[in-house]
Design brief:
alpha+beta, 9 helices, flat
Length: about 350
C-alpha cells in the first residue's frame, strides 16, 4: 500500500469543505429568490383584483409616419439673381458652377443635375439649382460663388431648402423589401422559362464543314462522334453542366445544338461561345427559335429526329420535371448517351 502523506490529506479535506460551503450558499440564494418572486406575485394579484382591467391600446404605425420627411440637404445649392436672357442656357450655367466641383448626374438620363426655373410663358425667373457630387464642393460654392458676377449679374448662393407642399398622402401599397424583390424576380424567370422552353437550347453554327467530315480517315460517323466529345468537354469546362449535345449531320451550316437544364446556363453559353473561333471559323451562338429544323431529309434517321423534336416541344410546354425524357439517359456529368443524330 502507498503511504499517506499528511499534507495530502489536509489539502483534500480543505477542498471538500470549500465545495460544500459553496453549494450551501447557492442553495440559500436560490431559496431567497424563490421567496421574493412569490411575494411579488401575491402583491400583483392583490392589486389587479381591486382595480378593473385596462385595455391595451394598439398603436397605429401609419399615424406615426403619416407626415413629410425632412430632407437633410448637404450637396444642393440655390442660386438667385441669374441672367434672364433667352440665350442663357443650362450648359453655360453648369459650366460656371462646375468650377467648384464635380456635378451630380441623373442615373436615368445621364445628364447633370442642374435646373433653371421658368415662368409659365417659358421665360427665365432668374434662379436655379445645382447638385454637387461631394459635400465639400457645395461648401466651396458658398464661399467662392456667393457674390460673384455672371453676365454683369451679382448672384447669391445658399444651401437649398426643400419644403413639401400640400397634405401627405401615404402610399397605397408598401414597397417590397430586397428579399421579396429577389423572390419575385426568380418567379418571373421561372415563368419565362416555362413559357419559352426553347430559351434553354442554343444553336452553334460553323462547328464543321462537309469537306472536313468527308476527309476524315475513319469516316463521317467517327468524325461526328469525335466532334460531339470535343464540344461536350468544352461545355463542361467553360459553361457548366448541360443536358444534351446534338450534332446535325450533313448540314451545310455545321450546326450543333446544346440543351441546358436552366435558362441561366444557356445565357452564359451564348456569352462565352458567341464570336469564338473553332478550326479557323467564327462561331455564331444564339437561342433556338423553336421552329427551325436543322435535320437533313436524306439522313437515314430523320424520322427519329422529327419524333424527338415533337417530344422536346411537348416536354418544354409541360416542364421537364426531373429533367429527363423517356427515350434519353444522361450520365453523371450531364452528357447524354443517346444517338448522335438525335435532336436536343
Amino acid at each position: 500500500p502507498i503511504p499517506c502523506v499528511p499534507w495530502q490529506s489536509q489539502t483534500s479535506g480543505q477542498y471538500q469543505r470549500r465545495v460544500h460551503g459553496r453549494l450551501s450558499c447557492r442553495r440559500q440564494n436560490k431559496k431567497r429568490k424563490q421567496k421574493e418572486t412569490e411575494t411579488a406575485e401575491e402583491k400583483k394579484d392583490v392589486e389587479t383584483a381591486g382595480s378593473p382591467a385596462k385595455k391595451k391600446r394598439r398603436r397605429n404605425p401609419r399615424k406615426k409616419f403619416a407626415k413629410w420627411k425632412e430632407v437633410n440637404n448637404t450637396k444642393t445649392v440655390y442660386v438667385q439673381n441669374l441672367p434672364t436672357d433667352p440665350d442663357f442656357t443650362l450648359e453655360e450655367f453648369a459650366r460656371f458652377m462646375s468650377t467648384c466641383g464635380v456635378l451630380q448626374k441623373d442615373t436615368k438620363t445621364d445628364k447633370e443635375r442642374v435646373k433653371l426655373y421658368r415662368n409659365k410663358d417659358g421665360s427665365l425667373k432668374g434662379d436655379g439649382l445645382v447638385s454637387y457630387f461631394y459635400d465639400e464642393s457645395a461648401q466651396m460654392a458658398l464661399r467662392l460663388k456667393d457674390g460673384s458676377m455672371i453676365r454683369e449679374h451679382k448672384i447669391s448662393v445658399q444651401m437649398a431648402k426643400f419644403q413639401k407642399k400640400g397634405e401627405y398622402k401615404p402610399p397605397k401599397m408598401a414597397s417590397l423589401t430586397k428579399a421579396e424583390r429577389r423572390v419575385e424576380h426568380e418567379k418571373f424567370n421561372a415563368l419565362r422559362q416555362q413559357r419559352c422552353p426553347f430559351l434553354r437550347i442554343v444553336i452553334l453554327k460553323g462547328m464543321f464543314t462537309l469537306e472536313e467530315a468527308g476527309a476524315h480517315p475513319e469516316g463521317t460517323a467517327k468524325f461526328y462522334e469525335t466532334l460531339k466529345g470535343e464540344i461536350s468537354d468544352e461545355m463542361k469546362r467553360s459553361v457548366g453542366p448541360f443536358k444534351k449535345v446534338t450534332v446535325f449531320n450533313e448540314h451545310p451550316e455545321g450546326p450543333v445544338a446544346v440543351k441546358f437544364r436552366r435558362f441561366e446556363d444557356s445565357q452564359k453559353c451564348i456569352e462565352v461561345m458567341n464570336g469564338r473561333f473553332f478550326s479557323g471559323r467564327k462561331i455564331v451562338c444564339d437561342y433556338w427559335d423553336g421552329v427551325t429544323n436543322y435535320t437533313i431529309e436524306e439522313d437515314s434517321q430523320s424520322q427519329n429526329v422529327d419524333e424527338e423534336l415533337d417530344e422536346i416541344r411537348r416536354d418544354g410546354i409541360k416542364g421537364d420535371g426531373d429533367g429527363s425524357s423517356k427515350n434519353e439517359t444522361t450520365n453523371g456529368d450531364g452528357a447524354s448517351n443517346g444517338d448522335d443524330s438525335n435532336v436536343k
